[in-house]
Amino acid sequence: MTTTFETQRAALAGVVAIPVTPFAEDGSIDPETYRALLRRLLDGGITTLTPNGNTGEFYALTPAERRLVTELTVEEAGDRSVILVGVGHDVPTAVDSARHARDLGAQMVMVHQPVHPYVSQSGWVDYHRAIAAAVPDLGVVPYIRNAQLTGARLAELADTCPNVIGVKYAVPDAARFAAFARDAGLERFVWVAGLAEPYAPSYFSAGATGFTSGLVNVAPSVSLNMIEALRSGDYPTAMKVWEQIRRFEEMRAANGSANNVTVVKEALASLGLCRREVRPPSRPLPESERAEVAAIAAGWSL
Predict the structure, then answer these.
(1) Torsions phi, psi of 173, nearest 5?
(2) Contact at 8 Å (CB) between 58 and 86?
(3) Are 70 and 58 in contact (CB under 8 A)?
(4) DSSP, residue by residue, the chain
(5) What does each C-alpha distance from 88 to 6, 11, 52, 141 come to in angstroms?
(6) Environment class of residue 160 by beta-carbon count within 10 Å: exposed (0-12), middle (13-18) or buried (19+)?
(7) What is the maximum alpha-carbon separation in the chain?
(8) Cα distance between residue 161 and residue 156, in whole Å
(9) Handedness of CA 75, 79, 85, 91 (dihedral sign)
(10) Is the pTM of this model over 0.90?
């Protein structure tokens, strides 16, 4: 029987939450705080979770820690959420992570952008094909940050791996996204705006139906307000939300997104929900900027 992945496709067409990974005082992962943050997302109406995403500090976690994060997420979410597990690094590591996710009951994997100084377009296809072919019963979502990649290459990948069902597109160029999606097949994939709320309105206008979010850790209702407006085509309301979150997202994006995760954790810390610590090469927010983040978080309807 051919898998249709209807549940997975529907889950991508919404707010795709990227949970933070909270650390204890000794620097290890704090499982109970992580569970509490997940419950807050689930109770807030979030139904798609991506453990081991970039907001979860994927590249700063050890293999054992990534496995733990996946296990905690699947266990805590149960049937309340569709789980999209971040995998990556070398092919054997990514395949092992994907099979681990499958064995736990996760429904999809997101393949992180290959971190390699030399990425050819055909090599990109080979990399994703190897991972997708290893877990044909899971939905596979490439995370695309490479502006040089063509839509034809994604179509080529999906021709041999029909479980490639969605795309997290994170090239900051709405016109390029519109062309890429149409070259790959606009209706063939679920298109997720991979640069979160700031880019969601422009990407939705070009065909996206979901967006990823780190901000959702702080204020689930804000992210849900935006997706509801975008689904109904109410762009004026969506842009009101955009204005509401603009400064917060500008702080995350400053200096090449140096404080992308840091600002989210600082906001959570200001609300007493987790510690502010991040791992190198990220760094805690300077004292001079903490009050502004706290004020923004306090001003949202939480």
Answers:
(1) -155, 100
(2) yes
(3) no
(4) -----HHHHHHHSSEEE-----B-TTSSB-HHHHHHHHHHHHHTT--EE-TTSGGGTGGGS-HHHHHHHHHHHHHHHTTSSEEEEEE-SSHHHHHHHHHHHHHHT--EEEEPPP--S---HHHHHHHHHHHHHH-TTSEEEEEE--TT--HHHHHHHHHH-TTB-EEEE--S-HHHHHHHHHHH-TTTSEEEETT-TTTHHHHHHTT--EEEESGGGT-HHHHHHHHHHHHTT-HHHHHHHHHHHHHHHHHHHHHHHTTHHHHHHHHHHHTTSS-----TTS-PPPHHHHHHHHHHHHHS--
(5) 24, 21, 10, 12
(6) exposed
(7) 58
(8) 9
(9) positive
(10) yes
Q: Which of 277, 287, 214, 205 is nearest to 238 (CA)?
A: 205
Q: So what's the pLDDT on residue 218? A: 98
- Residue-level pLDDT at 1: 43
How deeply is 156 buried, as exposed, middle or buried, from its count of CB atoms within 10 A (0-12, 13-18, 19+)? middle
Ranges of residues in the chain with a pLDDT under 70 are 1-2, 301-302
Give me the sign of the Cα torsion angle 234, 298, 30, 257: positive
Tell me if 110 sits within 8 A of 141, measured CB to CB.
yes
d(CA 9, CA 213): 17
Report the amino acid identity of residue 102: R
Q: Is 291 left (phi over 0), alpha (psi -120 to 50) or beta?
A: alpha
Single-letter amino acid, residue 10: A
Residue-level pLDDT at 302: 55
Dist. CA 231–CA 59, nearest whole Å: 33
Taking the CA atoms of 259, 62, 90 and 10 in sequence, report the sign of the dihedral they define.
negative
Task: Select from 217, 246, 5, 222 the least CA-distant residue to 109.
Answer: 5
